[in-house]
Amino acid sequence: MFACLQFLRFGCLELVSCLFPAFLFAGLAISKYVDLPIARYDALLIYCIGLTLLFWVVRLETWREVAVIFGFHLVGLGLELFKVRVGSWQYPGDAVTKIAGVPLFAGFMYAAVGSYLCQAWRRFDLRVSNYRPFLTTIFAVLIYANFFTHQWLPDLRIPIALGLLIVLRRTWVFFTVGVRRYRMPLAVSFALIGFFLWIAENAGTFLDAWNYPDQVNVWHLVHPAKFGAWSLLVSMSFVLVASVKSLEGRLYHRGTTATVEIAPQHHNANPSDR
């Protein structure tokens, strides 16, 4: 009985943490089936900007979190511009705010991931232990770069993913549900978030927000390989949030304990350990 209650609590916290993605998909659904006075992508851009401002005004997100989410928007938009240019997917329909085939609202789909991470961090009282920021950031950058370079060079996502697993092998994320404290490997959380992002991607293509080449005429499920791609991309998203959270207690919220514990650097081994 207690386990069922905890599962329901966990689900409720997840739903509340997904408010921005939920409103975003509501906008996608409405804009698909309702006639609008302006182009769909233009309306979605205005809607997403308004949504971001609303979340800040009602204090669902702080200005620091809004800045991080804007960073997600820029990173995602850069990836979108490249992927659309090489034909990986396309955005049907015209819009004033469409640049090189990419509507500016597209960055908000990545920003929604950032919003979820920020919301979940607060609502689950997340703490990360034994985090290695330098190495994790390097692998996150390699993952992002590989999304570009694999068009001409060998796809290195598997060796990069294995390297990231090694770096994160001792990194844990702690979270609270009700009166209980739990933990899981950080790498597992990346995989779980990646799976739900793959589901969200299926919903987005079904609502005709964008299409893969084999979905233009008839919609079908996005290839399961995209689940792995999203899991890798989450690592880069996490690095952006963790970089801000690791400064807690020093640059802001002075005196509080940082929610990201940096792994100690053992430059000199203890003689007794040899």
TrEMBL record:
InterPro entries cross-referenced by the UniProt entry: DUF817
Pfam families, A to Z: DUF817 (PF05675)
Signal peptide: none
Keywords from the UniProt entry: Membrane, Transmembrane, Transmembrane helix
Transmembrane segments: 7-26, 38-58, 65-82, 102-121, 133-152, 158-179, 186-207, 227-244
Keyword Transmembrane helix: yes
Protein name: Uncharacterized membrane protein YoaT (DUF817 family)
Organism per entry: Kribbella rubisoli
